[in-house]
Amino acid sequence: MQTVTPEARKAPRPRADALRNRERIVTAAREMFVEFGPDVPLDEIARRAGVGNATVYRNFPDRDALVREVVCSVINRTMAAAELALTQTGDAFEALERFVHTAADERISALCPMVQSAFDQNHPDLEASRERCEGLVGAIMDRAKAAGQLRSDVDVGDVMIAAAQLSRPPAGTGCDIADRYVHRHLQLFLDGLRAPARSVLPGAALTMEDLRQA
Questions:
Q1: I want to staple 40 with a disulfide (CB 3.0 to 4.6 A). Which of 36, 84, 158, 159 is the partner?
Q2: Is 168 helix (H, G, I), strand (E, B) or coil?
Q3: b/e string for 130-141 if b means 16 or more Cβ within 10 A?
C-alpha cells in the first residue's frame, strides 16, 4: 500500500488588521523614542498606538526587538526615498539629496545611537539594513562622481557623519531652532559636495570602515 506524503502547509499570511496594528506600534514607538529616548515604557507606546499591551508583546517580545524594527523600518524608508528619486529623474545627486533630507525627517541621527549604545548592534536584521543602506549610498555617490556632479574627495562615511551631526538633536532632547533650520543647513552641506570642488579638504575621505573602527 502506497502512502501519500501530506503537502507541507504554508504559513498563514498575517491578517490585514494585524499588519495595521504592527505598523501602528512601530510608528508610535518611533515617535516616542525620538521624543523621550529608548527607555519610554512599552505601555505608553501601546497607548499611543491605540492597541492593548498584549498586542505589543505579541509582535515584539522585548524592547530590543521593537527598537530593531523601528530602526530597520526608518532605514528602509530612507533608502526607498533615494531609490524613488533616482527612478523618477535619473539624477544621482538629487537622489543623494533626497536620502540626506529624508534621513533628517526620519530622525535616523536620533535612533541609530540607541542601537550602538544599548542594544545588539550586530543583530542580522540590523546588519542587513546597514549593508543595504551603505551599498545604496555608495552606488549613488559613485554614479554622481561619474557624472561630474559630486566632488571626488568624499566617501560614504563623510555623508553619513555630516548628515548625523547636522540633523536634529539626540533622542529625548528638544531644540525648536535646530528643527527649524535643519534642512537649510543640510542643503548648505550638500551644496559643498558638488563638483567642481572650490577648496581642498584636509585629511582623507571618510569611509564606512573608518567609522566602524573609530
A1: 36
A2: coil
A3: beebbebbeebb
The overall pTM is greater than 0.70: yes
Q: What whole-number distance in Å separates Cα of residue 193 and Cα of residue 148?
A: 11
Per-position b or e across 59-82, b if 16+ CB within 10 A of its CB: bbeebeebbbbbbbbbbeebbebb
Amino acid type, 176: D
pLDDT in tens, the chain (214 residues): 444 455 555 555 557 888 899 999 999 999 998 888 878 999 999 999 999 999 999 999 998 899 889 989 999 999 999 999 999 999 999 999 999 999 998 888 777 666 665 567 778 888 898 899 999 999 999 999 999 999 999 999 999 998 888 876 655 555 556 677 889 999 999 999 999 999 999 999 999 888 877 7
DSSP string, 181-212: HHHHHHHHHHHHHBSSPSSPPSS-PPPHHHHH
Q: Kindly state the DSSP code that residue 62 receives in the 8-state scheme.
A: S
Contacts of 46 (CB under 8 A, 6+ apart): 25, 28, 52, 53, 55, 56
